[in-house]
Each structure stands twice: as structure tokens, then as C-alpha cells.
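Posting for a labmate who doesn't have an account.
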Amino acid sequence: MSRQSDSAEPVYIAADAVIDAVVIGRNEGARLIACLRSLQGQARRIIYVDSGSTDGSPDAAIAAGAKVIALDMAKPFTAARARNAGLRALATDPPALVQFIDGDCTLQPGWIDSASRFLAENPGVAVVCGRRRERFPEASIYNALCDAEWDTPEGEANACGGDSLMRYAPLAAAGGFRDDLIAGEEPELCLRLRQAGWKIWRIDAEMTLHDAAISRFGQWWRRVERAGHAFAEGATRFASRDEPFQRREYRRALGWGLALPGATVFLALAWHPVAALLLLAYPAQIWRLRGRMGWRAAFFNTLGKFPEAVGVLRFHLRRLTRRDSTLIEYK
């Protein structure tokens, strides 16, 4: 695949860099159509993996030129399963690169050129990602928090998100994503790629527009709870002495969301009500963080340790009862 952007400067893409795209979604409606339109002309094939939509998404995707794969919903659903189903559809004629994108996102113009050129110039990099932005950050405080969350540092990274351009060969050699992870499948895959000697990189380029569509506190809570579940699973299953994978996030969730309030209640009941002053650690934490991220983000970052702790407890309860994880959905 080789072409030039609208700018006068030529874009150099390796001649064998055939690019396919894998889109996953369920009941995304108009957002899915916008996603597929943004991929037209950017990829040789567009694979859309549908997870039980009831809004006509499969038919709309076919009309948009995508190959549609219906995920077997008799098995527990995970985004990792959906992405792996897309990868299997590419295996008979594998591309050099795969663009992963969620159905509630649209690809930014110029991203494929920038990302594929970077990979062509950096053969040790397996995954490249750029700047994901919220489409409507002004619609709610929760959307604005997501937009700030996506604003991560450029350069070599430990992990990517759901939107990224990956080399097919190392991805296939790693066995793709882990089907059983209900969240955090991208960092876990990146961990295995890094252990195999590959690098993950974030470049200074606009990548995707995302529509979180979070308008209620309960949605925000469930989204953060899911993150806590991912931290617990990552730290418990995949961390090691050499790779403290997500242990810091896991310990913070436990400390701020469970240990501190639990110790406060215990001491207040067993010793003296003055122990309730320990809760002043929360406003102190907000004050400490506000210089780096602003008051609003500092408040929700601190508050978020409680749903994260709930996610941690959910993970460990599931392990004790040996039940399959179920997806924690927020929309």
C-alpha cells in the first residue's frame, strides 16, 4: 500500500505494508457508520465484529463495504474475543499492519500515513498509537475527564489503548489478545510484546475521535470500576518481580478505596471518634493533585479510588467462587 497525503511532502510507506482494519462494536448506530466511513480508502479490508447488536448494525456495516462477523454470544463476551475474531478473519491473507478501532470512534485524516510511516522507519516498534480525543468533551464532566485521560505522553510507552496500528506478524506470534480478560486486554498484550523484545510507541499525531457518551454518574462509576477490575487482574495474574505490571494502580485502589476508610471506621468504633480525622487525607490528596491536573480531575481521581476498589473486590470474589467474569458495561 503506497499513497501520498494531500500535503506536498511525499509520504513514504513500505511497499509491502498492506493495511487491514478490525472494528468492534454493539449497537453503535450512527457512530459505527461514521467509523466505517472514516476507514474507507485507508485499509484494504475492513472487518467489523458485531457483538449481538439489535439496531441493524451488521446490515449497515455490510452496506458500508465491511465484512461482518457475528460473535457467538452464547459464550461470555469480551472485547478481546471480538478483536481476536477479527484477526482470525485476516489470517488466510494476512496484512503487514492492522488498524484496531472501536465502533464509537472515527479515524482522523492522515493518521494511517503518519503511523505506517513511523513503523516503516522504526522496525523494532510493534504498536504505534497517537492522540485520541473526545468528540464532545463539553457535553458532560465525564466526557471531559475521558478527554484528559487520553492525553498521554509521547514516546516509548508500556501500553496502548483500543485504537492502535499494529504489526500483524508479532501480534499473531503472541497469540493475539487474551479472550478471558473483560478489561485491560491491550496492556496485557503489550506486556507480552515487550517481553518478546518489541516496543510500543505513542507519536505526536491525531489518531481518533471517541464518543464516550457518559452523561450520568453511574456510567462513570461503572467505567472506573472496570478499570479497578483490570488493575487487580493484571497485578494478580501477570505481574512479576521484574515486571510490576499494574501493581501500583492496584495498591492505590486498595489503599485509598478500601484500607483507609476501613481503618477509619474500625478505629472510630474501637478506639475514639477522633479517628475520623483520618478522612482528611482525601481533601489533602485532592489538594496535592490539583496543581498537576486541576481541581476537577483531582477530585474525580481521588473519588475514583472507591469504584476501583469495588472492581478489585469483584475480581477477587470471582476468583474465590471460580465464576467467569462478566463484562462491566457503562453504556
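Reply:
Got it, the C-alpha cells are right above this. The longest strand covers residues 199-210.
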